[in-house]
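Curious: why this fold?
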Amino acid sequence: DWFATFAASAARLDAWYEGGRQGPRPKGRLRRKSTPPVGLAWRLIALPMYLWVHDPDGRPRAMRRTNDF
């Protein structure tokens, strides 16, 4: 129910913006995030950098190789 409430709130605010901001503004600040399309060439360029730079858990490289925490 919690996520459904957030989704409904975001949908109301998005609809208000898409409708030209007519009428009273719905409560809240939550909006849906739209991801722009990325072409194949950019994905191929970005993938090596993502794999090399991105470190989701923050462990040093030596610890990641040994699966140590």
Notes: The two ends are 35 Å apart (CA to CA). Helices lie at 2-18, 40-53, 61-66. The chain is about 55% helix and 0% strand.
